[in-house]
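Apologies for my clumsy wording, but are you able to produce some protein sequence, whichever is easiest, and the tokens describing how it folds?
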Amino acid sequence: MHETCIDCGKMWGVVTTPRAGIRCTPCARARPDRDPLRYWEARIWSDNGWSRFRYKSAAWWDNITTLQDLEYAVKRAEKLEADHG
């Protein structure tokens, strides 16, 4: 079984039920002629990775922070305090 890109006609094998109306990876990338909003949004975020996370809520940060992250931060702070008195 195989799937076919609706834009360029490239074909590739699949082991699941083939999907209709699918694009290959190069054709699915955001392009200014196909999806200008998605294209420029992707460019803005890729230029500065911090922008993606800058305005997240405290609850969002809590959900992605693990105890290991917190333990590392505590050890790092203790080391900096010991080094700089």
Summary: The longest strand covers residues 2-4.
